[in-house]
Protein 1
Amino acid sequence: MLRSLDILLLIFLLVTAIGVVRTKDLLGASIIFSAYSLIMAIVWQQLSAPDLALTEAAVGAGVTTVLFLIAIGRTVRREDE
Amino acid sequence: MLDVVINTLVIIFACNGIFFFLVGTLGLVRLPDVYTRLHAGTKCDTLGAGSILFALAIYERFSINGLKMIVLAFLVMVMSSTTGHAISHAAYKVGIMPWRKKVSSAFPGEESENVTES
Amino acid sequence: MKKGVIIFALFLLWVLLVAAVIALPPMGSSETPAYTHVVPRYLEKEVEEGGANNIVTGIILNYRGYDTMGEVTVIFTALICVLAVLGRENIKRHTSKVELSSVEKSVIVKSVVRLLAPFIILFALYIILHGAESPGGGFQGGAILGASVIVFTLTFGFTLGMKKFPLKYRTILESAGPLSFFISGVVALFCGLNFLTYMLPCINHAYQDLVRHLLLLIIEIGIGIGGGTVIGSIFFAMEKVEKE
């Protein structure tokens, strides 16, 4: 039961990771990256590492996303081809 | 007897939550613009996650863990509706017009009126 | 020609890496020294030697104290690098109405943030102070503290955010992480022990455990406040508005 949850989470992780790299819109990419961090936090929790899960959820999903968004606001939104 | 009642309640609330998640996700994919999508997306968190967490609280028989679930449900509801409001407010202030149904070309007059409005 | 050289170099690197992987002990094997010596020692003796019921906290602050000190210094250095590139924010430039978003935040958002911000900070303090007993610790709590600063500033605007978190105090608090490590580590030197030893035999036996907990607590609080302030300062520095 929990193993299937793990497999599902890992598939989502792969999809979001590829999505971050493939997305040309940087705003969208940073939001997908925040989703990636959230899934990663759950994976850490599944691996019984709650300390890392807390860090990942707070830093990955919260702080870095905001910093990315500010950086995008100060530069350009679209990645060059 | 009590077990049966509690399990029934848990199943009802969990199915309710799953239903709202399903409908919300469908709406997020299918609906046309920002406001309607937000309308669908916030249902996921408030009703879907809210009732699933409530089901878990019943499952824990409102012990200390169950009360934590209730607090979590409250937080999720407050934060989700606030973010939904913030996004729609910002979208409105930026000047995104709400979606209007395009009238088919059978009535060209109304169609042009709609286009000028939006 | 150029492509061939690159492919050849990559091939060499690949051979080197594969050779290194083959030389490693098999993945997940219970025969490696990490599993036969290190892990049982940590799991069995940590509470007695490290002084924290949460084994992760005991490991990062006690057995791996030097590593954590380096990490905290790296965070501090990251702030210094950001400030070297971007410069400190200047409150005088913000007297004009330049804000992050052109949209004024609505009353609902402001009220919810005003309602929830104390609880966010309380949760961060709980995670910092309770790090020795439950999952959490200085880094996690510090990140949540920094996030609360960001939430406040994003909602109430820059001018008020800078007024509430003045540069005067942030300059001092940013260095709290490395500083607390050095303060706690130096205490052991007075007993003739190594740097970063928390169990001090030279004081009264009854107070040893208390002193150890106190030293760990100083480090946790230092990491938490230092980390949170560093995140807040990076946020403020990125928000700097150019002269127009």
Note: Residues 9 and 39 of chain A are 7 Å apart (CA to CA).
Protein 2
Amino acid sequence: MSTHSSRLAARMMVAPSVVLLLIWMIVPLAMTLYYSFRFYRLLSPDRTNWVGFNNYLWFFNSPDFWLALFNTLALVGGVLFITVVLGTLIALLIDQPIKGQGFLRILVIAPFFVMPPVAASIWENLFMHPQNGLFAAVAQGFGAQPILFLEQYPMWSIIGIVSWEWLPFATLILLTALQSLSSEQLEAAEMDGASPFARFRYIILPHMTRAITVVILIQTIFLLGIFGEIFTTTQGGPGSASTTLPYMIFKQAIAAKDIGRAAAGGIIAVILANIVAYFLMRGLGRNLEN
Amino acid sequence: MARALSPRRLLITTVAAWTVALIIFFPVLWMILTSFKTEASAVAMPPEFLSADWTLENYTEVWSRSDYPRFFWNSVVISVGSTLLGLLIAIPAAWAMAFVPGKKTKDLLMWMLSTKMMPAVAVMIPLYLLFQQLGLIDTKIGLVIALMLMNLPIIIWMLYTYFKEIPGEILEASRMDGATLWGEIIYVLTPMALPGIASTMLLNIILAWNEAFWTIVLTTTKAAPLSAFIASFSAPQGLFYAKLSAASAMAILPILILGWFSQKQLVRGLTFGAVK
């Protein structure tokens, strides 16, 4: 029933968003691609020329790059694993008919609203600090040496901090899915003598597949770009021990002022994101089809 | 799925659930407690709880430092400004896609979402240089534009899923009654769309307030919001724990309160309507 004129009006209404997003994404991406093949350092602005794949080769030949790649995947994989497993368990727990459920949800969701630099700063200073942190106090209480979290286990510490931030999101979504499950089915299974594990495995888990898929997809988008937490705590160190790909690119651009190399890193990050997205959609896409 | 449990099991479950919830919330609670202690009490070993020196001084001191209110104000302007500008551009687009869908509407929506997949670092340099050319580095208007564009796909998607639920028959009925296009939008559509627009607004203010990449990259001092300020605040060997905690508490409290009101919409919004 839409007439020709209403179609035209609709196009005019969508156009600004499309044009703006094109400018926001495609133009900078094209420029990044261009810079990635150029010699371009802010410290020697007079010399600019084509260098072919040299900027890319610098990355592939740098041991830091492979470490950063590993760290990036470890961060995404580690946080996904922790938040989905713990999120499922906590959602199952909160879903029970307990007193004060509403207030409980408020407590559990809180970390999600804490901005990344504050979350990182709380953990760094108030908990993980080797002299004044709460963990150090606990270790002293047991007569043990305080653990040097950010110095000795920087990646594990960052995975822990980011998991704390994203656990509420996973829990809340899994809880929402759980609450739409009818209790009759479960009661029937219980009558038939199904064990709690069997009920979880054959009734609850299949019902939650879609929600788990959504949690993994959305979190991956955000986790691939984690930046503020590393910037606030370790600055990628000690050495390069907690440098992820985004942080390595940031260091090339801001500290080394090497635009060409940073741009090549950016293109590598885009390719990595596409590979991850491809496997995610292949592996999980089926779950999302209605 | 809530079902009846035996009293004993219910007690165990309740205690377990509350313990878990308190553990998750504890870091925020500890930060708030620390913000009310004196600096000496904040770093005391073993940690002080009941015996601590309580004070409100950290808050008054942080607030009276000439630059803190500015960071706070920048956060307000940038998060609210980018959200309102985003709504202005997204509402017509989402409206058109929901009520006059074409063959390519689904593809267009997926493309918009895919721009969120693009790592920000990949486009950081050109955007930085472009912003520099345009004189937008370290300006509030620059950050308003950047964060608006960053969240535009989410705003459009959220509005689209809300608008989709408004039945088309109502529009047809109002048209039969002789409503003009503008009358239709103002008197029929707007009242029905308002709750959706409100929750979209809330969620995007939260996302913009907490954003900590573009705010760090695109600002230095003048236009820096709280996220950039806290990120570069390093306490030399635990000297300013209480003040850092007070500054942090003030930075997250407005959003924590907004967030508690919008937790239901959050699930819907951030999953693009895939989980209800």
Note: Chain A touches chain B through 106 residues (CB under 8 Å).
Protein 3
Amino acid sequence: MWKAAGLTIGTAALAVGIAFAQSGAPEPQRAIPDPQSGRHFATPETIAIQDDDFQNPAMLWAEEGEAAWSRVEGTAGQSCASCHTDATQTMRGVRARMPAYHPRLNRVVTLEQQINICRTERMGAAALPIDSRPLNAMTTFVALQSRGMPVAVDIAGPARAFFDRGEAFYNTRRGQLDMRCGSCHEDNYGRSLRADLLSQGMSNGFPTYRLKEQRVISLQFRLQGCVNDVRGEAPLLGGEEFTNLEFYLAWRAQGLPVESPSVRR
Amino acid sequence: MRFGSMPILGAAMLAATALCVPAAAQTAALVPFAVVDDAIPLPLTTTGGDAARGRALALDRSKGNCVTCHELPVSADFQGNLGPPLTGVADRYSIGELRLRVVDSKRNNAESNMPPYYRVEGLTGVRRDWAGRPILTAQEVEDVLAYLMTLR
């Protein structure tokens, strides 16, 4: 199924590449051309926890995801493994290229959403709630198969419009504090927001084990926290706005190695 | 008809409820002020600012929260450094210049990331519990200014 999806995306990308050349939409420029992972802004203690798989608490989530991979659920009598067999082979690189444009749905989908698409459409199983433990466990397990691979999302073609919306969200000042994402993560990374050292807001470590929450969190959960902090009305988890933003953020982190599951404060 | 009208009634009630919150919040309309050059020379209130209250506001996370972005000459466990240190700020700016920067720093510098402490217009997607309200009241702005003027 992934191979089929990849082919379709590839064809679509080719078609759009042509349209792109015709329309001449300018290549977006990154505000931070040479990005640094959140790892760069973490304490040595935190990095030590991340780097030791026996200490990294997120590995418990990865193990739960691995167990769920071959567990039959839903009316079709299928598990993830029924189609995708050995995750260490078939899921390699998937986290690195998600979110991705989904031609049939004509929108961008995150890894979480793709897992739920498989569950509801192929397995006849219920979608897992966004940012729930079982869904974060599965994304952690899938993401682990891409660890070390460079983030490489495809924003060309029909994906571009969704990328542009994500970029617009990123650059819109919002909330009572009237700040854009870049107010902290472009203009002030490396500086202290009271006790917090501001990172560049790169998403290559997600899902991440957040020490503050004592659990693995999804990227959109973290985004909700950011919007809340500027006293803005946070969009819904899993909704269009955050999904497009997540897509834009992946492009900002293009080239950085997937670090999932990282550990962050 | 009866059934058809119910959702409309419900929607109207919802709308009324929704309108209530900002309406109540907006009853405390912002006091008018005049910007002259790079400053708001006149105080926002007739009651003078209280430096001790201002200091507490500057350290209060839910209020001025200056210390999150600025270093202050206080013993706080963690101090931010996104903005310039505020020690000696009263030597560098007049109270009117500081008033403009606290009220709405973007009037001085459109690219400023400093939150507007006394503005409710032109904001996007403000959290419902804060909609229509400035971060600080007019009196709190004057209190913070009184404190800042002690930083020489």
Note: The radius of gyration of chain B is 19 Å.
